[in-house]
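Slide 14.
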Amino acid sequence: MAYEGILLGMGNPLLDISSVVDEDFLKKYDIKLNNAILAKEKKPTHYAPFLMAHYDRYEEMASKPNVEYIAGGATQNSIKVAQWMLQIPGATSYIGCIGKDKFGEEMKKNSKAAGVNVQYLEDESAPTGTCAVCVVGGERSLIANLSAANCYKSEHLKRPENWALGTLFLLFYWIALFVILLRRPSTFILLDFFLTVSPDSIQFVAEHAAANSKVFSMNLSAPFICEFFKDAQEKVLPYMDFVFGNEAEARTFSKVHGWELFLLSRLMMLQRALKISQWPKASGTLKRITVITQGADPVVVAEDGKVKQFPVILLPKEKLVDTNGAGDAFVGGFLSQLVQGKPIDACVKAGCYASNVIIQRSGCTYPEKPEFN
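Slide 15: predicted structure.
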C-alpha cells in the first residue's frame, strides 16, 4: 500500500505560548485546571457569552522567563505525531488558516521541518492564532485565541489541489473528529474548535461520507463544546462511525443528554461510551466505535454493544513534565496505525505509547524517532 499523502489534517493552527504558572495565576484569570476554552473577543460574538476574557493573560505569560513558543493546535499536533510515528516522507498533510505574519512563517517552518506537507490559507486581515498553555504541576489548561484560524473558508477545502490531497477524510478536532474514506488512500483530519469556524466544511464532508459509504469519525472536543454547541454537535453526530473523547468530555456529553441519573456509578464511563456508540446513525453501512481516554485509567472502547478496556502505560509522577498535547498525541498514534489497517487494539496501543512520550517533554514534542513496534 502506498502511504504518501495517506493522512490529511484540517483544523485551527495555533502558536502555543507555553509557561509554568502558579495557582494564583489561575485564580487571577479564573482558569480551571485541565480545561480548554476559547478566549472571548473584546467585542461580544454570537458564540462567546459563556467564555472568559483572557487577553491580558497572554501578555503576562509572554513576559515570563520560562515561556516557550511551539507550533500547535490540536490537529497540527496529531498530524505531526502521526508523521513521527509513521516515519514515511510525505505521509501527512495539513490544511488551516494562518495570518501573513512572522508567527505564520514560524508555523510553516516548524511543520515542514516535522515532515508535514502544509497547505495554509493565508489571511491578510487577522494575525496567526495563539493558544495560552498554563502548566501547573505537569497539568495544563488551554485558552485559544483563534484569530486567523477563525477565518477559514470552505472554498479553500474545495479547491481541487486540496480536495485531491487524500481519501480517508478524518475531520478531527477538539470539536469533532471525522474520518472519511475517499477515493485515494489518504486521511483528512479536522481538529480544534472548527465546529465554531467552518460548520459548512464539516457538513460538506459528512454528507459526502454518508452518500459514499465512507468512514467518518468525531472527537467530542472540550466539555464546553458538548454543553454550549450541543445542537451543532448533534447535527453531525449521526454521521460518525468513530467517536473519540476524554473522560471530562464524555461526562459532560452524558450530563447534557440526561443520561447520568440512569447510569450505575461504578460502570458510568463504560456505559457512557456504550450509549454514545449506540446513538442513531445516518447510514447503517458502518458500525460506530467509541474510544474514551481517562488519563492514567484504562482506555474504554465500545463496539458492537460490548465494551473493552485497555491499560495505559503508567508513568511515575516525578517523570511527568507537561500533559499539553497528550490527547492529541493519542489520536496521532492511533491514526498512524489505523491508516495502515491495523486492528483497534494496535491503534490504542500506539496512541498510549505516543501520549506517554509526549507527557515526559515540554509541549507536544518528541525525540527524533519512535521506539514503537
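Speaker note: Confidence is low (pLDDT under 50) at residues 41-54, 166-192.
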